Amino acid sequence: MPTTYTVIRRALITEKGMSVKETEGTLVFEVAEAATKTEVKQAVEALFKVKVNSVRTANFAGKERRRGKFTGFRPDWKKAYVRLKAGEKMPDYVNNL
Known about the structure:
The protein is of the alpha+beta class. The chain has three helices and six strands.
């Protein structure tokens, strides 16, 4: 993965993601499917200027969706849980909620 923004696609702002952020010091991102844990760690450290303790990833298969008689699938995607080291300041990427 050549750049930070091709590894990290967007921050996932959900109730579960926000509660994990507040209680466990973990950030949740949608990342590229081909991104490894090491690439995600380097991208988060470069983008937010913090130290990362660990990275967990989960792959999700796209769901089937229908429009009348036509069927199709949503794209597959990958989620990363990034835990920061103790004492690191949590980045505020959710200021406008």
